[in-house]
Amino acid sequence: AQSVTQLDSQVPVFEEAPVELRCNYSSSVSVYLFWYVQYPNQGLQLLLKYLSGSTLVKGINGFEAEFNKSQTSFHLRKPSVHISDTAEYFCAVSDLTGKLIFGQGTTLQVKP
Amino acid sequence: KAGVTQTPRYLIKTRGQQVTLSCSPISGHRSVSWYQQTPGQGLQFLFEYFSETQRNKGNFPGRFSGRQFSNSRSEMNVSTLELGDSALYLCASSPDLNTEAFFGQGTRLTVV
Questions:
Q1: How far apart are CA B71 and CA B52, in angstroms?
Q2: What is the pLDDT of residues A51-98, one digit of tens each?
Q3: CA B3 → CA A7, A75, B24, B104, distances in Å?
Q4: For residue B26, what is the DSSP state?
Q5: Best mutation target, B98, B107, B108, B110, to test chain A (most A CBs within 10 A)
Q6: Is the separation of the CB atoms in B71 and A4 below 8 Å?
Q7: Per residue in A96-112, is it b (16+ CB within 10 Å) or e — as a string?
Q8: From the CB of residue B77, how many other CB atoms can be counted at a distance below 10 Å?
Q9: What chain B residue is nearest to A41 in terms of C-alpha separation?
Q10: Which residue in A16, A11, A30, A31 sits closest to A102, CA to CA?
């Protein structure tokens, strides 16, 4: 069975500072990995995905993530955050059945 | 292309009633999944449909059911509502099996 652990429930950061949101997963099979963002009272928006190939994945809004198979991690990074990045971020893993298993979420709070 | 459309956006029901939620996937997408989001349990997978067949089911009681029509639109039904069913119900569509999921805005169900 797959599981996802997001290591920080809240991450406060000042505007224009870099940020890293951590995600570890466990799975006995090959997986696909995703990061989604959720703004208040909204659905989930796909930020980026890792299906195969290059382990460094670039997504929308300047975010990127690195797949590390040996450490079973898929951390999300942004070199310089904006106030508008304040939201909840979810890491998710999918096995080949298409079902998504989500982490508990990380609230990113960007302060001016 | 229009995104995933969920109706209604908000719903208030009384304990013991039943409710039907609707989801129209992105045009051309054949897979539809449903998720329940609550503050306590986070995002949990309900079920997935592909070409009108339920392909995968989460760990929810039989009161939760769904179906998919030939035009890929999907509905989920919850019978004998309980207070604990209050949640944001999210629908996601995918173009095919094992590809990324695109989420709708969700239906906020409140059971009183």
A1: 9
A2: 888 889 999 999 999 999 899 999 999 999 999 999 999 999 987 777
A3: 31, 28, 9, 7
A4: P
A5: B98
A6: no
A7: eebbbbbbebbebebee
A8: 13
A9: B105
A10: A31
